[in-house]
Predict the structure.
Amino acid sequence: MKASTFVYPWDVNGDPEAAARIASLGVQQVTLAAAYHSTRALTPRHPRHRIVTAEHAAVLYPTDGRWEGRELRPYTAGDWAPGDAFGEAAEALTGAGLEVHTWVVLAHNSRLGAEHPGTSVVNAYGDRYPWAPCIAQPATRAYLVDLAAEAAVRPGARGTELESLGWYGLQHLHAHDKTGGVPLGDAGMYLMALCFCAVCREGYGAQGLDADELAAAVRAALEPLWQGAPDDGGWAGVEKLLGEANAAATRAWRDETARTLQETAVAAVRAAAPEGFQILLHADPVTYHVGANPGVDPAHILSVADGVVVPCAGGPGLLTPFAETRKDAEPRKDAEPRKGPEPRKEGVIAANFGVVSGMGGSPGTLAADVARARELGATEIRLYHAGLASDRDLEAVRPVLAGF
């Protein structure tokens, strides 16, 4: 069972022992950040620093000429990842015998929203989410597709993992975050994620909705939650709050917008990549979910990409829809032809486990977690995150990987 761990270039560059230490974990692959959002990260073993502050979303390599004259373009990193930070780290990791895949964060960029506020998701109250580019806007979609192709296909990389290739919503921690006073479940988070920028308002109109009336309906639906009523959660909760017809129309617009962006971005990466280049998406099997692991239709995405990376911090249950879809793709005697897209029967289903105990990961239960994930159909695992974990966490991981 193939295992990969996530790593930042600054975990490796300037530390001559980093690549060998990561290889000694027993992973075969490293998923190395090539385009990443702003963050403050711990580097507990680096000989020169302990904290890295990435001040804004940035690409961690020199960009090419495709961005000349364009208003929306990626930002290069500052002193936290100068020059070709990705390339330098990739060379060291490859030299240690590791396969390198790129880790590309797409529709999550606070600086883009700050400098180009018109690109952001706008909720039903008129509040902008600067961290969340609206993926319905043509210029934003073109930016994301080109960023995916450039950042994914770096020299030496044998594959990519695309994060945030879909809708983003309220779920984004910010400096001294103060948004947890009213707990929102699936239903509330969906309503707070609905975008009312000019493009989305037209999109709702194409679904037979009046955007002003819809925004008013969303605000009315959310009012009981602000007053402390429980969020029933799930799609049934959305239908209860917003009404079945309104809910279905918003989902039709958003699902189609995300699907077509995913298709276009993956096609652009394939066109730029060498033969055999693997393309995976960080994904959730519930299409209306938003965030770093945006919702997808399992049958559709496994017909478009080479597989998915599935969050398992809350347990491995999200693997099941992908595994069942993959199983359905296996040829069966006398089976009726499948309707709709044909998923890849060899599609990767990678279970993503946190192994940083200080961030809620559970390296001590990794063996049992992986065993359960395999039972549910996982074909690979991902470990978040070799650079952030303590020595004790990494020591707990080694014997588990040695047993594969």
Remarks:
- The first strand starts at residue 2 and ends at 7.
- The CA atoms of residues 58 and 74 lie 6 Å apart.
- The chain has a mean pLDDT of 94.
